[in-house]
Specification:
Strand order of the largest sheet of chain B: 4-5-3-12-13-14-11-15
Number of strands of chain B: 17
Helix content of chain A: under 10%
Strand content of chain B: 15-25%
CATH superfamily of chain A: Folate-binding superfamily
Largest sheet of chain B: 8 strands, mixed
Strand order of the largest sheet of chain A: 3-4-5-6
CATH class of chain A: Alpha Beta
Radius of gyration of chain A: 15 Å
Largest interface: A-B, 27 and 23 residues
Number of helices of chain A: 1
Distance between the termini of chain B: 34 Å
Order of helices and strands of chain A: EEEHEEE
Largest sheet of chain A: 4 strands, antiparallel
Oligomer: heterodimer
CATH topology of chain A: Folate-binding fold
Distance between the termini of chain A: 18 Å
Helix content of chain B: 25-40%
Shape of chain B: globular
Radius of gyration of chain B: 21 Å
Order of helices and strands of chain B: HEHEHHEHEHEHEEEEEHEEEEHEEEHHH
Number of domains of chain A: 1
Bound molecules: flavin-adenine dinucleotide, zinc ion
Chain lengths: 97, 417
């Protein structure tokens, strides 16, 4: 079980959270003008990174808020969590918080 | 190839069984092949076998980063069925189920296919409606599936709890009698042995680390941990790692890789004659020929490449199992493990050409591709050899996500193995 550091509430066990998939995916600015290819990229194509991955979590059974995290998908170790709307922080050296 | 038969067994007994040969050569990479398959799981080894056996391509290789069958092929719970909702899926999975039926004879290798019946439980009115819809759709597609009352379900699987006082009582079930299980490793080994006999090189401990392309963008060869290997045709069958491999050619896919766990109990005498699955309460169980109860459920919540998951997921599964099969409550679990499954948004696979010339992909089987191994391998080989899809896999493209032609088994079943 993962321990996830909610930027609002602090570290809590994984069952309190829901995973929201890849972070920083922007909706097409003018949806009615977006091509099928742009919708494909927005809706379905994913990086599925093997390594450091920016993702969304929601503290569903806590404060209820969405936030972002950097996690290494080869170890499941969290490198950082940060508030929605912020840019991902530079990855700390060595991976330890 | 040393043929297996009662006579061979008898003959080898005289030599104290010291005369059995290795099942396949430990090949080293040549400089160039006519086609290379990336990934030595059942799907990749099978594709190599059909390329050689049915399309006459014998100067080919399978490259595997670890050992063959060490991926999801050797980690899955081996449920085989074809009772999917949509016409495209019914054709695809039933093509495979039919191939399972004589696979042991075709490969001269006992894959231990056991059509013992797969029963899917309904616990709510919604389940009943969805499952009956499947039964009718399947019958329309000549796929066997029948509706059972709780009493009939218990008759088929006597250890099933059909008391109505549990949180999710059994209100009925669908039974596909032609479904069942097969021994997972044998599929990898059987295909490897048969492909090797036709001249296919099976190259283990050889990880693909790059894909080289020529000036026109077509594939030229593979960079691997055992050197550069030229080939103008490359078929990727790398399951959970497909996104990583296709990224080497700049192809982005609608895939996410999740851990999926399974566990087995201590072995006991036969208590369970069939496979029972419940999508609603996330649990399924069967009994292996060794006597272990084989148990699984849904994926972990987040994408990962770690081949392990959270204990709370397995604990949740076991709670459901104990309620459905009270007789197992005091049994000990022996092992649990995880594999990495590549899921698509509609939970249907992709067996297709890619935008890159000479590059083909077979992926997106997610939590349920073991059952499809022979059929998928057969169709992937066809697609690679002819540079066009077989009619059965023609709908299973990457472009269906752009064109709105999803084959939405996700909405139809929610969970499936
Ligand atoms: C716990 C669990 C239970 C499951 N239960 C069922 C079930 O009951 N029924 C069912 O139908 N399906 C089930 N599945 C799904 C099923 O296992 C898979 O869909 C299927 O086995 C995929 O086969 P494959 O040959 O494509 O993949 P794999 O066997 O995973 O083969 C892919 C191979 O590619 C190799 N590879 C990856 N990257 C590289 C690289 N860069 N270079 C070289 N080689 C590489 C890997 O090492 C691996 O051996 C389950 C899966 C899991 C994990
Ligand atoms: Zn919180």
């Amino acid at each position: 079980m993962l321990i996830i550091d909610c930027p609002y509430c602090g570290p809590r066990p994984e069952p309190e959270f829901t995973h929201g998939g890849e972070a920083h995916i922007a909706r097409p600015a003018d949806p009615s003008q977006a091509t099928d290819q742009q919708w494909l990229e927005f809706l379905y194509l994913r990086k599925n990174t093997r390594g450091v991955f920016a993702e969304r979590w929601r503290h569903a059974r806590g404060c209820g808020r969405f936030f972002n995290a950097l996690r290494d998908t080869t170890t499941d170790q969290f490198l950082a969590t940060y508030r929605a709307g912020q840019k991902p922080p530079a990855v700390p050296v060595g991976g330890e918080r | 190839m040393q043929k297996f038969s009662a006579w061979a067994l008898f003959k080898e007994a005289f030599g104290g069984h010291q005369g059995w040969k290795s099942q396949y050569r430990r090949a080293t990479p040549k400089a160039e092949y006519d086609a290379i398959i990336v990934g030595g799981g059942g799907h990749g080894l099978g594709a190599a076998y059909y390329l050689a056996a049915e399309h006459g391509l014998t100067n080919i290789a399978v490259v595997e980063k670890g050992w063959i069958g060490g991926g999801n092929t050797g980690r899955n719970t081996t449920i085989i069925r074809s009772n999917y909702l949509f016409d495209e899926s019914a054709r695809l999975y039933d093509h495979s189920l039919k191939m399972w039926e004589d696979l042991s004879q075709v490969l001269n290798y006992n894959t231990m296919f056991s059509p013992r019946g797969v029963m899917m439980l309904a616990h709510t009115v919604h389940d009943m409606q969805v499952i009956k819809r499947h039964v009718h759709a399947n019958r329309g597609n000549a796929v066997d599936n029948e509706w059972l009352t709780p009493e009939q379900a218990k008759e088929f699987c006597p250890i099933l709890n059909i008391e109505q006082n549990i949180r999710y009582p059994v209100v009925g079930a669908a039974l596909q009698r032609r479904g069942g299980t097969s021994r997972h490793d044998t599929v990898a080994w059987g295909y490897a042995r048969a492909a090797d006999a036709l001249g296919v090189d099976i190259i283990e401990n050889c990880e693909v680390t790059g894909i080289r392309r020529d000036a026109h963008g077509a594939v030229e060869g593979l960079e691997t941990t055992r050197g550069y290997i030229r080939s103008a045709k490359i078929g990727v069958s790398a399951a959970g790692n497909t996104s990583v491999v296709l990224d080497y050619a700049g192809v982005k896919l609608p895939l996410e890789s999740f851990p999926l766990q399974a566990l087995v109990s201590e072995p006991v005498k036969p208590i369970m004659p069939c496979v029972v699955m419940s999508n609603t309460i996330h649990a399924y169980m069967s009994q292996s020929d060794k006597g272990e109860l084989v148990i699984g459920a849904g994926t972990d919540a987040y994408n990962s490449y770690t081949q392990r998951g959270g204990l709370h997921i397995s604990a949740h599964t076991l709670e459901s199992i104990c309620e459905l099969f009270p007789v197992v409550r005091r049994m000990k679990m022996l092992r649990n493990w995880g594999g990495i499954v590549d899921t698509t948004p509609d939970r249907s696979p992709i067996i297709a050409k890619t935008p890159v010339k000479g590059l083909y992909v077979n992926c997106g089987w997610g939590t349920g591709g073991f059952k499809a191994t022979p059929g998928s391998a057969h169709l992937f080989a066809w697609t690679i050899a002819k540079d066009e899809p077989h009619p059965i896999n023609a709908p299973f493209t990457i472009e269906r996500f752009r064109d709105g032609l999803l084959i939405d088994e996700a909405a139809a079943a929610a969970v499936a193995h």
